[in-house]
Specification:
CATH topology: Jelly Rolls
Number of domains: 1
CATH class: Mainly Beta
Strand content: 35-45%
CATH architecture: Sandwich
Order of helices and strands: EEEEHEEEEEEEEEH
Radius of gyration: 16 Å
Strand order of the largest sheet: 1-2-10-7-12-5
Helix content: under 10%
Number of helices: 2
Structural class: mainly beta
Oligomer: single chain
Number of strands: 13
Shape: globular
Largest sheet: 6 strands, antiparallel
């Protein structure tokens, strides 16, 4: 595994290094020790898979509020997605900024999403599956989000119209960077 920086504070790209032979390949997708060497302290408590039938499926932008904030590692295990994160940690030097990356079953990238970040994606092709490693159990009472196309962030999505999205994700309220304190973790993100 190789860990790459992103323009956002604490968010990382994880690149698998497959070992190939005539049978196919083998790659490590998670290594607590390697991640810790790069400042990522990740205690997995849940593993999830999301399947999407059609391209233009848009999910997000989701996060959980403290004390149930969660770190995530996102991988596309079938197909291709455009994965997006927004830094919503008010104490961060990159607060309010976003970053997007193509994840696919061919490019060997995963995305580490720290606590205090919103996460979402758009599918680029049919029959796409996404695998999530999560550091906190799902807590519906602490679930929140920001709208995928909120002008406060200016995310450059591949698809802006004719998308497939849930009513809940379409109806998140507008975000105001000057007054909204969505998440303020303070100090060390990893308790």
């Amino acid at each position: 595994m190789i860990i790459h920086s992103t323009p956002l504070d604490k968010a990382k790209i994880i690149e698998m290094r497959p070992i190939q032979d005539n049978r196919g390949h083998f790659a490590r997708t998670f290594c607590k020790k390697t991640l810790a060497k790069h400042g990522i302290i990740f205690d997995m408590v849940q593993s999830n898979v999301a399947y999407n039938h059609k391209p233009r499926t848009t999910r997000g932008m989701h996060f959980q509020l403290p004390p149930f904030s969660e770190d995530k590692i996102i991988s596309c295990i079938r197909g291709e997605i455009y994965d997006v994160i927004i830094d919503l940690n008010k104490t961060s030097p990159t607060f309010g900024k976003w970053f997007g990356l193509t994840l696919s079953d061919e490019n060997n990238f995963s995305l580490y999403v720290p606590k205090g970040f919103a996460h979402g994606y758009q599918t680029m092709v049919e029959n796409t599956s996404i695998h999530y490693l999560v550091s906190e159990s799902y807590s519906p009472s602490y679930e929140s989000g920001v709208r995928w196309n909120d002008k406060a962030f200016g995310i450059e999505w591949p698809f802006k119209d004719e998308i497939i999205i849930s009513p809940k994700d379409e109806q998140w309220r507008d975000f105001d960077k000057n007054t909204d304190g969505i998440i303020s973790l303070g100090g060390d993100d990893h308790e």
